[in-house]
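Incident log, structure service

09:12 report received: a user says their structure output differs between two submissions of the same chain.
09:20 pulled the input from the user's history:
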Amino acid sequence: MQSMMCLLRTSLPPQSIINEHTVNSTTMPHLRLLDYGVSISVFLSHYLVDIVVEKIGRVLKPYSIANGEVWKENDVLIFNTWLLWYRQGEKHQWDYIEIGTNITKDMDRMVAFQEGLNTWANWVNSEIDTEKTTVFFQGVYPSHYKNGSTYPGGVPRAEMVVEQVLSGITKPVSLFNITRLSQLRNDAHPSTFNIFGMDCTHWCVGGLPDTWNLLSAALV
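09:34 re-ran on a clean worker, output below:
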């Protein structure tokens, strides 16, 4: 997101009127290009599906998307999820998973990811007016520490799930395949400026200029 905002800002005339602010705790940077009538914002929803605070704790609901009412008001939507589905400890943002009428402490995370993604896909099919809204999905960022023309582990299973789910959507959704882009890049890998060690999550981010070039081409 930050890389896209930087590209937009540097392409604007110096005198352009820009307004930046944070709307609330779930909508992070909000950028308004007042001369062009354009607003860009990040809606923070790590799983796309809902997490609801109940008496027993935070419950992940892979079959529910309440936030969709906010999303479908936009002209362009770029979705992304996966990074936190396998996290434990402090970054584990839910305590239970609701599957049908059952509440479980945990389950196969890849299965949960696929169920959540199917819920999102069904929401796109039923709720998105593609005459008004263009939909993109940013693929899975791979764990890797060396660049190369081949990836020893092959295509990550999560990316295969993404491609399978997208193939079943009847509405037009474009995939930004950052998986293969990221596997081949060496210019974003950890360097002497990285004080956190081999933190590929942040240094090899998928929001690179080549990805946003694809977005620009698709919207022309």
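09:41 both user submissions now match this output. Likely a transient worker issue. Closing.
09:42 reviewer note: The longest helix spans residues 109-127. The CA atoms of residues 61 and 99 lie 7 Å apart.
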